[in-house]
Amino acid sequence: MTSKESIQQLFDFHKGLVSISCITENESPCTAYLHEHLTKLGYTVELQQISPGRENVLAYLGTNRNPRVLFNTHIDVVPPYIEYREDEENVYGRGSSDAKGSMAGQVQAVEELRREGKIKEGDVGFLFVVGEEVDHIGMVKANDLGLTPDYLIVGEPTESRLALGHKGVLRLNISLEGKAGHSGHPELGISAIDRLLDILQSLRALDLPESSYFGKTTMNIGTIQGGLAANIIPAHAKAGISFRIATSTQEVLDLVNTVLPLEKQIAEKITIERLTCWEPVRCHAVPGFETFVANYFTDIPSFTSAKKSLLFGPGSILCAHAPHEFINKKELIASVASYKDIVLKVLAEAEE
To answer: Distance (Å, rounded) from C-alpha 309 to C-alpha 69?
Structure first.
């Protein structure tokens, strides 16, 4: 049972995290706060520079920097910054759920396990990374730290359920050229926007693949750009598309190629830029938790040296990135016991 003192420590740490603006590429204020806080708690803390002013945080007990269980979540949040506030039931603010709730719960769980004498040096550590919301660069660079945990416990808002895995992601930019002209004489130009809309409609008509484990692949047309003015035939157009992959990225790329074969791309000056390409991920689970498969993507596949990965955290992805982002206080408190339970179960599992 988490004590009143421990609950207050949890809330204070969470408030400190959420009160700092740490939008991607500006994570340093939160990194500094984490360094100070974890050092005061008695951890050995290392900072790994990713680029000037951007650093990952690795923390562990004593001198064993390669713990068997490694807690992880991301430091950065999406824009815009939303200030911390609270009421009787919830805490609001950018990152309150995604993913400072997980971060606070993880640290407080380890603190309670330390006080209870249930873990020792080499059992548990923390890896908090930058850049998850954009390009996963922090987690990619974390591979250079030489860590080989038996278990990686990643914190994301899963509504306090263990994820059995999550879909992959494929992000594409499709650009094409037309021919500018006066809108009063459309026969003298070629509308890049009209051609792009035809392509997008063909993509929307695709029968996207599905699997019994991950569900159905989905497509989102997230951005459309093009044209200069309403009275000019647009000479350029571009769309940003994201697929959430349930089978394989190659299967979806093959489908895209049925709409845009190479000869068509060349003849019609169409460019397909592949931005992100990650396969679906299966996660480890322990008994005693409700489970599900997530439709969103995480840092898990970017870190290649963990033997098994788990995905769990308080809060909901449904409010993450939203103007009303929040986390329920009772769920945040409960996450401490849940993280403790997961740690003890995987440590026991490792001994079997």
So the answer is: 10
Q: Are strands 291-294 and 162-166 parallel, antiparallel or unpaired?
A: parallel
Per-block average pLDDT, block size 10, for the chain (352 residues)? 90 98 97 98 98 97 97 97 98 98 98 97 98 96 98 98 97 96 94 97 98 97 97 97 98 98 95 95 98 95 97 97 97 98 97 82
φ, ψ dihedrals at 31, nearest 5°: -60, -45
Q: CA 311, CA 39: separation in Å to the nearest integer? A: 26
211-231 burial, b at 16+ Cβ within 10 Å, e below that, comes to: eeebeebebeeeebebbeeee
Active-site amino acid positions:
132
Is 29 exposed, middle or buried (CB count within 10 Å of its CB: 0-12, 13-18, 19+)? middle
d(CA 123, CA 109): 13
Cα 123 from Cα 94, distance rounded (Å): 31
